[in-house]
Amino acid sequence: MKTKDHLIIRLYIAFSLMGLVAQAQETNYDESKVGTYVLPDALTTLNGQKVVNKEQWEEVRRPEIIKLFEDNEYGIIPDATINSSYRIVEESDNALGGKAIRRQVEITFSGKGQTRKMLVLLYMPKDVKKCPVFVSPNFQGNATTTTDPYVIESQFSTNGRANQTSRWSYDRIINSGYAVATFQYFDVYPDKDNDVSESIYPLFGINSNDDLQDNTGKAIAAWAWGCSRVLDYLLTLDNIDGERTIVLGHSRIGKAALWCGALDQRFAMVISNDTGCSGAALSRRNYGETVLSINNSFPWWFCNKYQSYSQDVSSLPMDQHELIALIAPRAVYVASAQEDQWADPRGEFLSLQEASKVYALYGLDTLQGYSFPAVNEPLWKGSCGYHIRSGIHDVTDFDWEAYIGFANEQFKFSKK
Ligand code: GCU
Description:
- 30% of the residues lie in helices and 19% in strands.
- By secondary structure, the chain is of the alpha/beta class.
- The protein has a 10-stranded mixed beta sheet, with helices on both faces.
- Helix 5 (251-263) links the parallel strand 6 (240-250) and strand 7 (269-273).
- The termini are far apart.
- The model has no long low-confidence stretch (mean pLDDT 95).
- It binds alpha-D-glucopyranuronic acid.
- Alpha-D-glucopyranuronic acid (GCU) binds at residues 251-252, 276-277, 289, 294, 297, 342.
């Protein structure tokens, strides 16, 4: 009798839990079921003071928000002295049909008796004295971004050559007078649920997952760090314009690009391509991917503390509009794709719109009052740009054309 009772109770608990999990993981794509939410105010400090000018923003509120993202979402990379050395592995002034210089640079990072290597592929237009530059990590390896046979395969690439070329409009970029630098994101943190020892973290004395504190960064923090290290190198070159630098990322890499651009104010422009949950999209909206599902599927992207918000996003002390606000007054572009509802395009737009309040402190035009734009009709105001393009989760030539056009406008640049 007793055993039977226990069995019934156990079955009851098991079924209830299954029900809860199913409920929690059901993805909402219905705007009427997004629910109501209150966003933390980017312009109110933790002790309740209103931020009314850019000085208060820069001295008080901006550092507060950075710390909130460090402690609760992306994590920090510990302070340590890292030495970077650069070796040009290959170079040609006859690349991309003779229009570009191609340079492949191995960066060796050393710290705490360890070394890690990153291979950077850089194309620079030959006919521009000081070129603006895109820094953008790739998913599958440098050689997958181009049909250029001289491009060396990245160390962790198993993807062969030229299978991601549609994402890299190198001709358009070079023809527009921009340089572009890429590296495979695995070089700094392999995108797997493995031990952090396989990444750059041992350079900082984090030698295994046992060394992780609640707020130690993992993959996204590392990818962001990698973009800044590429910029360090680019800033040593005479023909790169250090005032016109852009960090751009797609999807998970775009989440890292946003975080990088938020922290590293040397980047003059930040581009979020289809970054969605824990990128540009508001976390508090129940639409598409949620913090619960991202934490369940990709726990190695965020610091451990982020897990504690899975069941209650409203307890997050910040939201993603504040990440975008950290980029102010520098230029920011958020792009979505119509068929990428998982990334919550409307939530990405609303987040940028909300962030533009901080841009107003700098006297810049904002997106306040504008409604969600029509598909394939970019909306650019002040230093903020947005579009939703037709099609799927991807980076396309349409996106690149918009980014270059926006950058030309922001940088007052045009290749004559
Ligand atoms: C998954 C993940 C997203 C991420 C995307 C990508 O879909 O849920 O958060 O942006 O992968 O990186 O392509």
